[in-house]
Design goal:
single chain; about 100 residues; mainly beta; Conserved Hypothetical Protein Mth637, Chain: A; globular
Length: about 100
């Protein structure tokens, strides 16, 4: 599904995002809206509806531990390097906007 320079990407585990397409149709970046649940008993990424995702992490939200665990979990789930995942907004909030660069 493409419209006005945007391309929807599907991941095998039901992830779906919109990103800017380059001239060859490849995506160079994706923006994700994420709600992080720290101090969880599980590590999991699930759809939160409306293009948003819920990420459960076991770490505490102190000293950047929950953010680091979230990045590791997203990296593993999406098959991208950790250094391609950046928190754009919400560094100290449970609601985050995350960019993944390719």
């Amino acid at each position: 599904m493409e419209s006005s320079g945007e391309k929807v990407i599907s991941h095998e585990q039901d992830f779906q995002w919109e990103g800017q397409a380059n001239e060859t149709g490849g995506v160079v970046a994706m923006i994700l809206n994420i709600k992080v649940k720290p101090n969880s008993s599980k590590q999991e990424v699930e759809s939160f509806g409306g293009g948003r995702y819920l990420v459960y992490v076991k770490s505490e939200p102190e000293n950047n531990k929950a953010n680091e665990e979230m990045i590791k979990l997203l990296s593993k789930e999406l098959g991208v390097p950790q250094n391609s995942i950046k928190i754009k907004f919400g560094q100290t909030s449970s609601n985050k906007i995350v960019e993944i660069r390719f």
